[in-house]
Amino acid sequence: MSIVKINVLTVPAEQRETLEKRFASRAGLVESADGFEWFELLRPVDGTDNYLVYTRWRDEASFQAWMEGSMKEAHQGGADRPKPAASGSTVWTMEVLQQAEPKAG
Predict the structure, then answer these.
(1) Quick count: other Cβ atoms within 10 Å of Cβ 101?
(2) pLDDT above 90 for 14
(3) Is residue 4 a contact partner of residue 96, using CB atoms and an 8 Å limit?
């Protein structure tokens, strides 16, 4: 089964719009990565400052290859690179044990 990586980003209220704009204009490199299955940016609605960046991968090796390849290249930058919108980040790794799709009909 697949693995899921959830990056929990702590984003102060004054940086939310910045973060959302940056994700909206992201390079889109992850979509062509070998083993990539899904991406979602989840906005908090319950009073927390935590955004969730959800990605799903065929396996851990696929995720690691992306991290060491195109993701690393995309995040390389010089002095003109903008300050991060998030004030903190934690990555969770989960295995998909069960899944379900809507029933047809």
Answers:
(1) 5
(2) yes
(3) yes
Tokens 């889109």 belong to which residue? 28
Mean pLDDT for 92-104 is 94
- Under a CB-based contact definition with an 8 Å cutoff, are residues 10 and 88 in contact? yes
Which DSSP category does 82 fall into? P
Q: What is the spatial distance between Cα 96 and Cα 38, in angstroms, rounded to a whole number?
A: 13
pLDDT mean over 43-63:
96
Q: b or e along 77-98 (b: 16 or more beta carbons within 10 Å of the residue's beta carbon)?
A: eeeeeeeebbeeeeeeeeeeee
H or E stretch covering 9: strand 3-10
- Residues 53, 7: Cα–Cα separation, whole Å: 5
pTM of the predicted model as reported, rounded to 2 decimal places:
0.85
